[in-house]
Amino acid sequence: MSFTTRPELQGTFGMVASTHWIASAVGMKLLEAGGTAADAAAGMAFALNVVEPHLNGPLGEMPALIWPAGDEAPTVVCGQGSAPAGATIAHYRAEGLDLIPGSGLLATVVPGAFGALMLMLRDHGRLPLRAVLEPAIHYAEHGHPMLARVSDEIAELADVFREEWTSSAPVWLPGGAVPKPNELFCNPGLAAFWRRLVEEAESTTGREAQIETARRAFYEGFVAEAIDDYLREACVIDATGERRKGVLTAQDMADWRATTEAPVSATYRGTEVFKCGAWTQGPVQLQVLRMLEGDDIAALDPNGSDFVHLVTEALKLAFADREAYYGDPAFAEIPMDALLSADYARARRTLIGETASTEQRPGQIPGFEAQTAAFLARAARAAPEAGIGSGEPTMAHLTNQDRDTVHIDVVDRWGNAVSATPSGGWLKSSPVIPGLGVPLNSRAQMFWLDEGLPTSLAPGRRPRTTLSPSMARGADGWRMAYGTPGGDQQDQWQTIFLLRHLNHGLNLQQAIDAPLFHTAHLQASFYPRGTKPGHLMAEPSFPKPTLEALATRGHRLEVSGSWAIGRLTAARRLADGRMQAAATPRLMQAYAIGR
Q1: Cis ω on the peptide bond leading into residue 528 (within 30° of 0)?
Q2: pLDDT in tens, 8-55
Q3: Which of 131, 164, 505, 583 is exposed most, by the fewest CB atoms within 10 A?
């Protein structure tokens, strides 16, 4: 038997996995209380808002896949908020911007996570709202052990909180000091915010009515009013070093609703993989699987240079297509059928050679030539300095300005499953909203201030987010929820995990523990939107000959620290009712629980 850092959990009652052990414990508590996968996932999401505030918050966003036991395919829950009515290219250009900053008030869109969670609870849950929110309220009010990484991020911005984002100082600097690692940290403002939501919800009777009342209190009541009141006057420093006002209003909040839609999918050697649509980067994973379907991956050493090279080069091609073609399908024509077609995948596969490419190579689809040309022009631009609070936060130990996200996977006793990736509203995004105890999101930085693109900034449009939950169904009927935080790396690490699991016989924990890699060759989704042509980062646990061969093949190799890449989790239900789950040991926070 090969060693794994944790066991692959097995049972028949339920499985939860998330990026923090407290959230996983909350999810299992809710399953034990008779809740469904939707109840557990929602409770876990609220708990993650509290215990990983450097990675997500209540005013962030959350795409999810939910798979009811009797359905043939999962459903996408879109908790990605849209751009405010005042978010026009003309306005942002008039503010002296060529790129949307990675922090500050102009970087925000409508907070979508709460609406998505209410939709999931209303349509797929069983427990009352109070039961789902109570664990998170407890930790916000009475405290949780401060993670060292949260303390470090607060310390990094302490002077900004004291001097510029002054509404953040009372929350993140209690008593005027940076909280120490492992000491109890409370957010009484957040606890009061959620308590008021529950109390207003309970002014009505009936579970569904209470959930709708809470949604209205958030989007049409005191939460929207607090955001509107603050943004009317606030003019704060952003990642460019300049002070600017935001454009989000209470009316933008009231006009927005979480929605559901069908996923996009592709079949890889008998396994069907489901992703959110082109308003996320999710189809990248499907494109890579289509490109590699004809390769004998099982014959390659999963820790060898041939495997790493092949997957990396396929990822480069898929990410070039992401930049040229993806965006909000409600506003732009997205040629998804062409991108996922067998003929297109075969043509793209022929571009992969024996050496690393340093070029951006989007595919050419008739009628979209202007978009590919625009991408190549963008990729050639010099990126500015990252600035205050910009980027995306879990993998900040890998690059100074990367920011991140959290992830949740759940399967329950009835066969329901959820994969959700909450993010945004982290402590470095913008000042805390007075009266709420948390800041707004910064997802608008994924728009471009160039006209005519599927990702051009426009009122009501969803940014093309990096958030990318996943689900898969095996030929023998198993169903799996899986995912990871990690910004542009999410679909890279997930694809590697899935390929090893399906082709090399690795169980969930073995596939998660195996050495990981990713490329930053792509155009980054986060400000300042740079590229690193030919880049490849790999963990040092790869055999030395593998790393040497990759460098010889022209990859601009960067070896990470030990156990440094990825935060994968997974939960699966087999056709006979048995369940399995696993979570990464990396960063020493994620945990799977089940029985």
Answers
A1: yes
A2: 999 999 999 999 999 999 999 999 999 999 999 999 999 999 999 999
A3: 505
Instruction: Determine which helix (DSSP H) or strand (DSSP E) holds 171, and give its type and residue range.
Output: helix 169-172
Per DSSP, 98 falls in state: S
Q: What are the structure tokens assigned to 539, written together?
A: 């963990």
Q: Which of 214, 210, 234 is nearest to 224 (CA)?
A: 214
Alpha helices in 264-380 (DSSP H): 283-291, 305-325, 336-339, 342-349, 369-379
Strand order in the sheet with 569-573: 9-11, 579-583, 569-573, 479-483, 470-473, 271-275, 264-268
The CATH number that domain 264-385+467-594 falls under is 1.10.246.130
Between CA 45 and CA 50 the distance in angstroms is 9
Mean pLDDT of 518-536: 97
For residue 47, give Cα distances in angstroms to 13, 172, 551.
22, 17, 42
300: CB partners within 8 A, 6+ apart: 306, 307, 310
For residues 206, 207, 213 and 216, what is the CA-based torsion angle, rounded to 10 degrees?
A: -150
Instruction: Please tell me the distance from the alpha carbon of residue 199 to that of residue 381, in angstroms, as a whole number.
Output: 51
Backbone angles phi, psi at 15, to 5 degrees: -135, 135
Mean local confidence (pLDDT), 343-348: 98
Placement of tokens 């006002």 in the chain: 245
| Residue ranges of domains in the chain | 11-66+82-253+401-406+424-446, 264-385+467-594
Extract the runs of DSSP E, i.e. beta strands, from 330-478: 408-411, 417-420, 470-473
**Residue 235, CB half-sphere, CA atoms under 13 Å: how many?**
5
Amino acid at 177: A
What is d(CA 60, CA 55) in angstroms, rounded to the nearest whole number? 10
**Can you tell me the distance from the alpha carbon of 168 to that of 159, in angstroms, rounded to the nearest whole number?**
11
